[in-house]
Amino acid sequence: MPNKIAIVIPAYNEAATINDIVSRSLAITNNVYVIDDGSTDETLALIQQTGAHLLANQTNQGKAASIWRGMQAALENGAEYIITLDADGQHAPEDASRIIAAAKNNPEKIIIGSRMSEKSAFPKKRYYANSVANFWISWAAGYEIEDSQSGFRLYPASLVKKLKIPYGKSRSFVFESEVLIEGARMGYTGIFIAIPALYQENARASHFRSVLDIVRISFMVAWKINSRFLYLKGLYTGVIRPALRRARFDELGFHGVLSLLLSNLVILVTLGLSYIWHWLNIYQLAKTSPTDSREPKAVIVLGMRLRENKPVNDFVLRLDRALNLYHKYSSIKYIILGGFTGRSRLTEAQCGADYLVRQGMSAKNIHREEGSRHTFENLVCARDLIESNGSGRPVIISNRYHLARCQTFASELGLDCELCAAEEIFLFNPKNFFRICVEAYYLHWFMVARIWSKITGAKFTRHSSRKDSA
Fold first, then answer.
1. Measured between alpha carbons, how far is residue 44 from residues 11, 18, 47, 154 in Å?
2. Where are the domains of the chain?
3. pTM of the model
4. How far is CA 356 from CA 13, 106, 315, 360, 379, in A?
């Protein structure tokens, strides 16, 4: 198959990385086409030294024109599959082997290297810009697109031959997005292969302009959507259905979904006042919750989704607060909650327990619960694990913005407990403002569901007792 593969690399002022990227690409296939896009540094001379097929633009024409020129050259030489990758070191050419392997079983698919699973490696502005673009392009294409801005792709030659897309300089970063939309309309949807997000500290500034290019992409996508009369089917299949699947709405059943709709209706009817009431309560509790406890019966640490099998910063704050209590109360039980979430190979409870042991807590004090997946299940399991004898009340540790939900759920479950804030103080910044907005929405929905349940007798969740994991 390598003989049928061509690699196309657009390059503009990439003297620092071009030699290395091209050399590694030539180890995969001899059919490497490098397009110098009017570089003003040594890029052109360095490409000439590599032995790759060189195509030189006399002036800067933009990424889209360079990719298109490379694709046409590859087609003329009989390529059946065309891989594109960037010249700035963001992509490891060696990952092409995994993309090629996926193409063997999916010959009529666009194979895309997705970097979105490594959020921590992304510059924040680029991550959020990509997320916005993913939303709109998923809508227009009619299926969920994980990383619409990844330039590391494999295209079937049969698709490239059919494409009729503008590739002028203003389309530099619009072109690759438009390919996904037009490809989907012709039956070529994408498959996503996880690849590392490589951003070197000394790398040159990205040619992608977050505001201007996102605006251009948005105008293109808006035109595509409007040309299909808002393409409501695409909105559902590309955006809404994947979001519902991630939220496990299939587990909610009819009454759960209905309560969500009712919650939104209540917010509208009250002109948002019911939502604001929850927001203010959450904010007040976030500001005033203590960071200590008196003789707790047990300490409950709520788990949190891991990142690359490691605890995220908010989870670390919870665990550090537990360590502070451990220095005062070293004979009680510390219950760490949370099962497998996301793509992690560890449960949240295991990761948290490992962290505490490394920081000096005795493993004998730690009890893990590894079956729960969200806050309500966490607290159901915590209730089952707390011994009925002994004095004092259990303490729940979580982040300040999350404590109101913990308190509400604990009360619903009949769990008499204290709250303990992970952070020393509550910082009112944009991130925490947004978090409280999300928490207020969750709690509003929960309270409406609770009232609906009492009226109708509907049940929303099923819980079973889970035993402690040693």
1. 9, 9, 5, 25
2. 2-242, 275-456
3. 0.61
4. 48, 45, 12, 6, 20
**Which tens digits make up the pLDDT trace of 245-274?**
776 655 566 677 788 889 889 998 999 999
- Alpha-carbon distance 177 to 134, whole Å? 9
Dump pLDDT digits (tens) for 205-241. 666 666 677 788 889 999 999 999 989 899 889 987 8
Q: Band of the pLDDT at 202, cuts 50, 70, 90?
A: low
Q: What is the DSSP letter of 398?
A: E
| Token pair belonging to 270 | 């009250």
How long is the chain? 470
Torsion, Cα of 322, 323, 328, 332 (10° steps): 60
Q: How far apart are the first and last CA of the chain?
A: 50
Ramachandran bin of 466, using left for φ above 0, alpha for ψ from -120 to 50, beta for the remaining angles: beta
Position 130, amino acid: N
Phi and psi (nearest 5°) for 42? Answer: -90, 10
Sign of the torsion formed by the C-alpha atoms of 447, 448, 450 and 455: positive
**CA separation for the pair 139, 236 (Å, rounded):** 8
Half-sphere exposure of 272 (CA within 13 A, CB side): 4
Ramachandran area for residue 402 (φ above 0: left; ψ -120 to 50: alpha; else beta)? alpha
| Look-up of token digits 């009360």 | 411
Q: Which residues contact 212 (CB under 8 A, 6 or more apart)?
A: none
Rg (CA), the chain: 27
Using CA atoms of 420, 423, 428, 433 in order, give the dihedral in degrees to the nearest 10: -70
Q: Please give the sequence-ordered ranges of beta strands (E in DSSP) within 233-343, or none if there are none.
A: 298-301, 333-337
CA distance 321 to 241: 38
DSSP 286: H
Q: Which two tokens stand for residue 171?
A: 């389309």
Per CATH, 2-242 and 275-456 having the same topology is answered: no
Evaluate whether the domain defined by 2-242 bears CATH number 3.90.550.10: yes
Superfamily of domain 275-456: HUPs (3.40.50.620)
- Coarse DSSP helix, strand, coil percentages of the chain, rounded to the nearest 5 percent: 50, 15, 40
